[in-house]
């Protein structure tokens, strides 16, 4: 395969250990196998970042190349625009958006610095794969600097309707820059359709086919690539972790109570306040469940420099305190709220011990926690997944109990049903969800995207040559050895 160059905002450097998150979970198996270059932000904030050189780390065949951010870049690019404007807007939560033109300018300037730093590392036959909302304009910035390589872009989070996107003043310019990619991938067909409409409405693209756009005399391919987990491996991890001391202590502390488990970052899109309201409604309507059920919500704090996250933490702590003071007893705490992360193995063991997995984001691109909960279950006695219908995972895991996360009564009804569900129905639902994820993997997901990128780049180059007399962008494409990769996976 051509050398793979992955570009993401944050790079999970090996010296920092295994890191949670959908992007790292999806990409690391591919890059460990194929090698290449992983480029992005180091995670460090440095007053002299603009003048600092690239930092390099080698791990096997994979090279990590990172740059630091200055305090102004971290605030304007990362906190204020990427996470204060794009994140809520792309999740269809415009009321949380806080736009300032100065932040938008820093966002663009920081992307330009990414492009400048990457330029000297790109070889003629590299495949470039850009990831997520932090780097929307990067394909256009690379093209403006003469990069002719195949460029793919994957959005890990949802994409809203065109009218919502237009609320961000730079929306049209961002779309125009993004459309310089050869392939743009999404988690669901709904996200793809929303993007295509926005590209037509705001960026003057034409849509000759459901999965293809034409813009400025060239074609841009669109595709749906649901992010995956290694379900059999996670199942084995959960089975081992179930006997670990910390997981054993959790089960002992329950004293026979059924465990409801939520695992989410403390984030406004995850629907945590709504989830607590649903659990409250369950306890109000079903007093017979008092002392028979416990809810453990693991919600590590994130993005503390974003105002909406600070507000959410205060609101969650208040709601949790009120729930426990109203329904709890000296020997029973109905809600256990943990505002720090837990090791991945421990979470797998907790999932296997939980009668109910409660995953109710207001919107989510995919939500790999839902898939991990399914994978963690013991087939002979599985738990029940209660899942937001607005998570991308709901397309594959439609045998879960699907709920509208804005309806506390629906959450309460689903929880009650899950807690009382007979084993045969639990097994039937679990088997259907397991079948949907068991034969997929992050490695196959990556190869699917790269094969599509090679096809798209070839088509784009040929179309550009025919329509505009341009030179092909990448004359030395080698096919991804998918058959060999698939046999290695199996």
UniProtKB/TrEMBL annotation:
Pfam family, any one: Glyco_transf_20
Family: Belongs to the glycosyltransferase 20 family.
SUPFAM superfamilies: UDP-Glycosyltransferase/glycogen phosphorylase
Alphabetized InterPro entries for the sequence: Glyco_trans_20
Protein species of origin: Acidicaldus sp
Membrane spanning residue stretches: none
CDD domains associated with the record: GT20_TPS
Name of this protein: Trehalose-6-phosphate synthase
Gene Ontology MF: a single term: alpha,alpha-trehalose-phosphate synthase (UDP-forming) activity
Lineage: Bacteria, Pseudomonadati, Pseudomonadota, Alphaproteobacteria, Acetobacterales
One BP term from GO: trehalose biosynthetic process
């Amino acid at each position: 395969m051509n050398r793979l160059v992955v570009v993401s905002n944050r790079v999970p450097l090996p010296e920092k250990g295994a890191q949670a998150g959908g992007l790292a979970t999806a990409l690391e198996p591919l890059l460990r196998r194929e090698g290449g270059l992983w480029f992005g932000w180091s995670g460090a904030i440095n007053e002299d970042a603009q003048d600092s050189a690239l930092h390099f780390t080698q791990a096997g065949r994979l090279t990590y190349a990172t740059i630091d951010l200055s305090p102004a870049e971290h605030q304007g690019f990362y906190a204020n625009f990427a996470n204060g404007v794009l994140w809520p807007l792309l999740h269809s939560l415009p009321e949380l958006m806080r736009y300032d033109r100065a932040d938008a300018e820093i966002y663009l300037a920081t992307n330009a610095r990414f492009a400048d730093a990457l330029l000297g590392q790109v070889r003629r036959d590299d495949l470039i794969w850009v990831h997520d909302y932090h780097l929307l304009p990067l394909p256009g910035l690379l093209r403006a600097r003469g990069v002719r390589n195949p460029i793919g872009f994957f959005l890990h989070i949802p994409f809203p309707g065109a009218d919502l996107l237009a609320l961000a003043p730079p929306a049209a310019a961002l779309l125009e820059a993004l459309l310089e990619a050869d392939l743009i991938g999404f988690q669901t067909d709904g996200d793809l359709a929303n993007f295509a409409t926005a590209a037509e409405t705001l960026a003057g693209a034409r849509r000759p086919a459901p999965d293809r756009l034409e813009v400025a005399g060239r074609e841009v391919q669109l595709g749906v690539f649901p992010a995956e987990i290694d379900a059999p491996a996670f199942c084995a991890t959960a089975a081992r972790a179930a006997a670990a001391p910390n997981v054993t202590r959790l089960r002992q502390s329950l004293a026979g109570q059924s465990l409801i488990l939520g695992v989410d970052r403390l984030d406004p899109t995850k629907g945590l306040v709504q989830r607590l309201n649903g659990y409250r409604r369950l306890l109000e309507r079903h007093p017979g469940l008092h002392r028979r059920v416990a809810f453990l919500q693991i919600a590590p704090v994130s993005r503390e420099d974003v105002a909406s996250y600070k507000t959410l933490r205060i609101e969650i702590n208040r709601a949790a305190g009120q729930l426990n003071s109203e329904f709890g007893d000296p020997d029973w705490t109905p809600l256990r709220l943990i505002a720090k992360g837990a090791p991945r193995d421990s979470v797998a063991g907790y999932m296997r011990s939980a009668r109910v997995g409660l995953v109710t984001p207001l919107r989510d691109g995919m939500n790999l926690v839902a898939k991990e909960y399914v994978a963690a279950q013991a087939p002979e006695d599985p738990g029940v997944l209660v899942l937001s219908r607005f998570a991308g995972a709901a397309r594959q895991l439609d045998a879960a109990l699907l709920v509208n996360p804005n309806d506390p009564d629906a959450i309460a009804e689903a929880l009650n049903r899950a807690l009382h569900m007979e084993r045969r129905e639990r097994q039937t639902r679990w088997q259907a969800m397991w079948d949907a994820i068991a034969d997929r993997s992050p490695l196959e997901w990556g190869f699917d995207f790269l094969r599509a990128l090679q096809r798209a780049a070839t088509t784009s180059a040929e179309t550009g040559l025919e329509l505009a007399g341009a030179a092909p962008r990448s004359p030395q494409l080698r096919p991804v050895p998918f058959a060999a990769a698939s046999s290695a996976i199996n």
